[in-house]
Structure formats: structure tokens, C-alpha cells
């Protein structure tokens, strides 16, 4: 997972999502947990975004298309063991597939 970017996937093992070569735009996601954005950094070609309190998140540059220089975006949600991470989707849109 994470195309060899072990730091993204193993540093925050509770719940990790890796999106490689995104073919869709994540319009708006809302999540609730006891676990706002703690940090955002780029590791190689993967932009890693870590969350640790309640808040909302969306694709970089929303509502415009995602940046073309990113080949993947990692969202990592962190919560204490006795908490639940809940993702509520207000909108979710897939781009039409243009390549095979």
C-alpha cells in the first residue's frame, strides 16, 4: 500500500487511505471523531494529510481539479482506541475515465 511510501502507511496505522493516480475528485468529505488537520506534507510523489480532531476535508484546490503534479494523496485519520471515526459524504463525484 502507498506505493513504497512506508512512512505514510505505517506511521498512522489506525486508519489510512491511499489514493494513487486519482481519477476522481473528492468534492467534500466530512468526518467526525475525537480524533482538524494536524499536518500536511509531501513525501516523494505522495501528499500526506493527517487529521487528529473533528473537521472537514476536501481535495486540494477544490472545487478545481486536483493538482496534476500529485500522483497520490494520502488521508490519514487518527483517533484514540476508544473512539470511532465516522466519514459523512456531502458530495462525491467521479471524473469520466479518459485513459485505459
UniProtKB/TrEMBL annotation:
Residue spans crossing the bilayer: 20-40
InterPro entries the UniProt entry points to: Sperma_CUB_dom_sf
Domain of life: Eukaryota
Keywords: Membrane, Transmembrane, Transmembrane helix
Name used for this protein in its record: Suppressor of lurcher protein 1
Natural source organism: Toxocara canis (Canine roundworm)
Gene that encodes it: sol-1
Amino acid at each position: 500500500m502507498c506505493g513504497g511510501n512506508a512512512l505514510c502507511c505505517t506511521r498512522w496505522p489506525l486508519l489510512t487511505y491511499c489514493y494513487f493516480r486519482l481519477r476522481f475528485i473528492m468534492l467534500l468529505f466530512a468526518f467526525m471523531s475525537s480524533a482538524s488537520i494536524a499536518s500536511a506534507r509531501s513525501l516523494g510523489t505522495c501528499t500526506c494529510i493527517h487529521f487528529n480532531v473533528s473537521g472537514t476535508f476536501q481535495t486540494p484546490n477544490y472545487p478545481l481539479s486536483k493538482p496534476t503534479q500529485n500522483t497520490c494523496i494520502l488521508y490519514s485519520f487518527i483517533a484514540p482506541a476508544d473512539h470511532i471515526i465516522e466519514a459523512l459524504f456531502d458530495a462525491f463525484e467521479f471524473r469520466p475515465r479518459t485513459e485505459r
